[in-house]
TrEMBL record:
<comment type="similarity">
    <text>Belongs to the peptidase M16 family.</text>
</comment>
<protein>
    <submittedName>
        <fullName>Predicted Zn-dependent peptidase</fullName>
    </submittedName>
</protein>
<dbReference type="InterPro" id="IPR050361">
    <property type="entry name" value="MPP/UQCRC_Complex"/>
</dbReference>
<feature type="signal peptide">
    <location>
        <begin position="1"/>
        <end position="22"/>
    </location>
</feature>
<dbReference type="InterPro" id="IPR011249">
    <property type="entry name" value="Metalloenz_LuxS/M16"/>
</dbReference>
<dbReference type="InterPro" id="IPR007863">
    <property type="entry name" value="Peptidase_M16_C"/>
</dbReference>
<keyword id="KW-0732">Signal</keyword>
<feature type="domain" description="Peptidase M16 C-terminal">
    <location>
        <begin position="189"/>
        <end position="356"/>
    </location>
</feature>
<dbReference type="GO" id="GO:0046872">
    <property type="term" value="F:metal ion binding"/>
</dbReference>
<dbReference type="Pfam" id="PF05193">
    <property type="entry name" value="Peptidase_M16_C"/>
</dbReference>
Amino acid sequence: MRSYIHKIIIACCCLLPMAAGAQLKDPYEMNISGVKVIVQPSGNDIVEVLTIIKGGVYNYTADKAGIENLAITALTECGTVKDDKNSFKNKLDKVSAQVGGGAGRDFSSFRMNCIRADLEQVWPLYVDALTQPRFDAKEFARMKQDAITGLKAEESNPDAAIDQLSMNLAFAGKAYAKRPQGTVATVGKLTAEETKAFYKKLLNRGRLTMVVVGEVPRAELEQKISAMLDRIPAGQPFVVKKDSYTPPANTIKPEQKDIATNYIKGITGAPQPGTPDYNAFVLAMRIFYTRHFVEVRSNQGLSYAPQVWFSGGLTPYANIYVTTTEPDKYVAVARNLIEKIKREGFTEKELKDRKTGYISETYYRQETNSAMAGALASNEVIHGNWKRAMTVKDDMQKVSLADINRVFSKYITNITWAYQGDPKKVNQALYIQKDAPPLPKDVKTF
């Protein structure tokens, strides 16, 4: 059984602040050749560079899902014009540096991490990988086969299966239904030449944002980044695409699957990033997570690891997840719990505790340069405001009890349910009816 606890922490990574412990110099931004470059002096000897390519799943059609992820992986796995794969990795290994990246639904990222003393050796490797990748056919075939092997393994993973089924149902015909890693069918058809051509078209300054976390003088950064960007075409300014998910009705899609238990995942609405409701919803969902866990596992014994979390990307949505042998009883409990919260609301103590926990947790997690860079980058792309990473404490303290009660009632409405397991155990009326179904007689009062 897969635990989604980590998703509660990282699904809203765009909210994470900068580390609070060290006395850091003020961050700043530069515009170099039309690219925004965000810089946070780190106060340590590590340099982290993150190049963001905007667009995510909007950059390719459904039949090409996986092409961007393969392209970003190929930057290091297929070598560069100057170095084959082995030569490239041997040079990195000599100084214990890291270069690599991957693709997500909202953007792709390509990072470099090294100690300051090795920057002169590592920076040219990073630039070559980003701007002069080799896309060697033999290495690409090996890399593609590795990707297909991983995708086949996931097909037998019930958690991965229910994830994808729920996304297909909620976002049918929309970009978010596309899986950045692709499928066995889509990845299997990709060629090195096709992926190289895609990457060449994708890489332009209009899509880029860069983040640097490290103690590197401004003039040196400007010189290095300017020389790198001279190798990259200008392109047209790219505007990120935001969308909303508001299910028009409750729905359920049962799917037969021979597994030991039954997997259920529901997707419902959430507020857009950059709106006043966003921070309040983050806290509301964390309190809901605790209420849901206590009721479903501790009080009713219906599941070992029930979860809820907020996926706070450019198309935000809320998730409810459980594995259970009693799906109908679970959905009655979950829907009655939601209605109870809407009637009675959360409490001041819950809000106070969650604010304290959230702020402490996020500061704790921002103690590395990599995490700092990720927070700045995702705030810039998702919220259009990297400075938001610096103000999370004050932002969260402003959220009131009325705010979290209001947003919970506003966005947790109709639910798109995905179900895999024994369909005979599902009474679909319990999932799709407007009002919460009656609680079974053997359910403890709550």
